[in-house]
Automatic annotation (TrEMBL):
EC number assigned by the record: 3.5.4.4
Keywords attached to this entry: Hydrolase, Metal-binding, Nucleotide metabolism, Zinc
CDD domains: ADA (cd01320)
Active-site residues annotated for this sequence: E200
Organism: Shewanella eurypsychrophilus
Molecular-function annotations in GO: hydrolase activity
Residues reported to bind Zn(2+): H12, H14, H197, D278
Site (Important for catalytic activity): H221
Domain Adenosine deaminase, residue spans: 7-327
Protein name: Adenosine deaminase
Cofactor list: Zn(2+)
Catalysed reaction equations from the record: 2'-deoxyadenosine + H2O + H(+) = 2'-deoxyinosine + NH4(+); adenosine + H2O + H(+) = inosine + NH4(+)
InterPro entries per UniProt: A_deaminase (IPR028893), A_deaminase_dom (IPR001365), Ado/ade_deaminase (IPR006330), Metal_Hydrolase (IPR032466)
Family: Belongs to the metallo-dependent hydrolases superfamily. Adenosine and AMP deaminases family. Adenosine deaminase subfamily.
């Protein structure tokens, strides 16, 4: 099968984990930021998480280098444009990209400048390529909570004009959800859709909590519902979208190997799974690679693929108009 030509939808991709290595070198020179090497191979190897990663925390160390050049409006706009361009060139037709505005204030940018820059870059790519997109604002679970409402307020000006949803990301501790109830409620009040990273490193109870306490409509990863019947049943009953990111899950040791990934069993049991990249550079992947891996390892047919494609449309935080457009690519 020609995986490159298949129409694709990626609902879970981090901007800062998807920066082109050459762009790091270019922007570091432009911005006079010191980076460990000027050699593209060395920069690439510093950005890609190794197979020897022990856990999610080690995986997350790979984001410091890209973030060092994502502190100006021009740098952020360029990186946003490029991730949409890269995805468009492999036939991603709809792309939800997420990032943490709190991580881009090292040189004093306001949240409005930061969010405005990612949206501008995305819109530049949308005008040039056959791709539509939206941004998701991720709050880092380990960060101080005093500016979360400021992020939500700044993003609200862009709601349904490039920004659609709110997410919690970063290291996952058991029971993290309860601390975030007031913030998620505030985001919902403002009109954000909700997706939450849960059941990746953490326990299945986190998925149960993300849905029941934080009203998540989708969860990032959600792997560990396998060990938690209540979470599994809730996901099934409420049709909660599972944002599966196969390569990332292996790197972070959320699963040992692809053949042990529960997504196949989820799909057979009619849970709404989607296929996503998580981090194009840190996980050294593309949507074409992720789709190929899933189709080959799980022995899925073309009909299965388009079934998953339709699930992604249903789960997307896109407008009805965009969903209609995406359906025109379905077989
Ligand atoms: O797979 C992930 N799980 C939890 N957090 C993640 C993952 N990939 C990236 N992040 C974090 C690191 C980034 O700096 C942040 C915002 O994109 O989100
Ligand atoms: Zn993620």
């Amino acid at each position: 099968m020609n995986y490159l030509s298949l129409p694709k939808i990626d609902l879970h991709c981090h901007l800062d984990g998807s920066v082109r290595p050459q762009t790091i070198i270019d922007l570091a020179a432009e911005q006079s930021v010191t980076i460990p090497s000027q050699d593209i191979n060395e920069i690439s190897s510093l950005m890609i998480a190794p197979e020897t990663c022990n856990n999610l925390e080690e995986y997350l160390l790979r984001f410091d280098l890209p973030l060092s050049v994502m502190q100006t409006e021009a740098g952020i706009e360029r990186i946003s444009f490029e991730v949409f361009e890269d995805a468009a060139k492999e036939n991603v037709k709809y792309f939800e990209v997420r990032f943490g505005p709190q991580l881009h204030q090292q040189q004093g940018l306001s949240f409005d400048q930061i969010i405005g820059s990612v949206v501008k870059g995305m819109q530049r790519a949308e005008a040039m390529y056959d791709i539509k997109g939206n941004y998701i604002l991720s709050i880092l679970r380990t960060f101080p909570k005093d500016n979360i409402r400021d992020v939500i307020d700044a993003g609200a000006a862009y709601l349904n004009k490039g920004v659609v949803a709110f997410d919690l990301a970063g290291a996952e501790l058991p029971g993290f959800c309860s601390e975030f109830i007031p913030y998620v409620d505030y985001a919902i009040e403002k009109g954000y859709r909700i997706t939450i990273h849960a059941g990746e490193q953490g326990v299945g109870q986190n998925v149960f909590d993300a849905v029941s306490l934080l009203h998540a409509e989708r969860v990032g990863h959600g792997i560990h519902i396998t060990g938690h019947q209540g979470a599994y049943d809730l996901v099934k009953q409420e049709n909660i979208g599972l944002e599966t990111c196969p390569s990332s899950n292996i790197q972070t040791k959320a699963v040992n190997k692809l053949s042990e990934h529960p997504a196949k069993a989820f799909y057979k049991d009619k849970l709404p799974i989607t296929i996503n990249t998580d981090n194009r550079t840190v996980s050294n992947t593309t949507m074409t690679d992720e789709v190929r891996k899933v189709m080959e390892e799980f022995d899925l047919s073309r009909e299965d693929y388009f079934n998953i494609y339709r699930i992604s449309i249903e789960q997307a935080f896109a407008s009805d108009e965009v969903k209609q457009h995406l359906l025109t690519f379905a077989e």
